[in-house]
User: Which sequence fits this backbone?
């Protein structure tokens, strides 16, 4: 077969599968722990409607006239006010730090640097799922630097009074470990509760692998420690040193989601309730159910979102792009948070114009602290904020809440939500 060629097929990938079997379904194992995975921009070419949209300023700007009269001078981009209520929290920007779970790609140094800088910025931060079963809660003897309490303490130590908020995710395995109960009753979290800055997030899935639970590569010794909590699969061969740890995605129906939210409200009355949705085809209906049941915020993770390990087929081919998710939700009935390849002001402004209250930083944040562990996230957010102020001002508007689909133009009808007429006012909280 030496001279055999198949130009119509990805020959190297096929040969790789012939050599490696199940291991070839995933990215290169050598990259694990050093790479934040998620949909590659090249895979998304022509798929994500957000990338095709252009921001379209008008000629006539009545809101600029109102601002001119109010200020007594011509307004500048520095007059744009970016302060936003995000899921019950006060933030100086329409930005939050997305969840990082137990993946080693968000190593000890990175995740604590991110926590400290998010606190310094005063933006909300989400603590991801599966941390406690893998790294521990933070009790005596658990000194990995990656525990739940390590992240909480790094964040709150820098957090200004009255700003930001901490959000703790829970997976099926976290529920068994009673993570929410521990945080809610922890004396170290009382200040957050007293100031209304603690939330719990019910996770139904994530953008990089909708329909799947968390996946992590462990060495066999570590896998034996958690094999009662997770499914362990020898994807890389029965003699390999490392195995795949698989967690349950959980099961949801309309009624289960409603009851879960009601349960959270009853059991943790002083905490805000967030719900994270993966980019499923019924996402508009799911978001409506969550808001109707009393969720303070709904997070939408587009197919571009997620930083963890997943099969290549999921990273490239599964889930709706973020723009399509926002289109299917339409005018939101509550605080809508959007994540998925957000790192600069243009994509962020498009999400806000399509109804999002705020945008989440994931892989972009990891790259920033990898470049500068002390100030990388702060610099990234400062740059995004400047772009947002300039873009919003160019549209003749002065708060993110003023943005709407009328501010966007599509070369073809990619998004039904993009219309010439402004959308009705919606609850941005």
Assistant:
């Amino acid at each position: 077969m030496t001279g055999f060629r198949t130009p119509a097929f990805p020959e190297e990938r096929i040969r790789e599968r012939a050599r490696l079997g199940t291991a070839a379904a995933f990215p290169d194992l050598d990259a694990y722990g050093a790479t934040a995975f998620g949909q590659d921009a090249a895979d998304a070419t022509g798929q994500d409607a957000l990338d095709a949209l252009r921001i379209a300023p008008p000629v006539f700007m009545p809101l600029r006239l109102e601002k001119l009269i109010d200020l007594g001078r011509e307004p500048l981009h520095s007059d744009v006010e970016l302060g936003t209520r995000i899921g019950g929290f006060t933030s100086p920007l329409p930005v939050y730090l997305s969840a990082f779970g137990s993946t080693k790609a968000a190593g000890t140094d990175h995740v604590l640097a991110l926590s400290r800088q998010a606190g310094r910025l005063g933006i909300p931060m989400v603590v991801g799922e599966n941390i406690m079963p893998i790294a521990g809660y933070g009790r005596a003897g658990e000194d990995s630097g990656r525990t739940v309490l390590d992240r909480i303490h790094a964040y709150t130590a820098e957090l200004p009074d009255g700003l930001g908020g901490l959000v703790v995710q829970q997976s099926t395995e976290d529920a068994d470990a009673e993570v929410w109960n521990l945080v809610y009753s922890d004396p170290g979290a009382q200040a957050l509760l007293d100031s209304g800055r603690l939330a719990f997030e019910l996770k139904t899935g994530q953008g990089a692998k909708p329909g799947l639970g968390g996946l992590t590569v462990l060495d066999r010794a570590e896998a034996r420690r958690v094999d009662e909590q997770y499914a362990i699969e020898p994807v890389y061969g029965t003699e390999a040193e490392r195995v795949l740890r698989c967690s349950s995605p959980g099961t949801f129906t309309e009624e289960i989601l409603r009851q879960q939210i009601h349960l959270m409200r009853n059991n943790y009355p002083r905490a805000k309730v967030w719900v994270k949705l993966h980019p499923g085809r019924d996402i508009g209906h799911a978001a409506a159910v969550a808001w109707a049941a009393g969720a303070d915020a709904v997070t939408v993770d587009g197919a571009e979102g997620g930083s963890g390990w997943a099969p290549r087929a999921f990273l490239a081919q599964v889930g709706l792009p973020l723009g399509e998710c926002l289109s299917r939700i339409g005018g939101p009935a509550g605080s809508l948070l959007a994540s998925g390849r957000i790192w600069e002001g243009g994509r962020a402004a498009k999400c806000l114009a399509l109804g999002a209250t705020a945008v989440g930083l994931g892989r972009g944040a990891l790259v920033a602290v990898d470049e500068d562990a002390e100030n990388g996230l702060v610099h990234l957010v400062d740059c995004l904020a400047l772009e947002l102020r300039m873009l919003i001002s160019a549209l003749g508007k002065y708060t993110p809440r003023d943005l709407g689909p009328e501010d966007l133009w599509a070369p073809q009808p990619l998004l039904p939500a993009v219309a010439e007429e402004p959308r009705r006012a919606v609850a941005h909280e």
Remarks:
- The two ends are 64 Å apart (CA to CA).
- The first helix runs from residue 11 to 20.
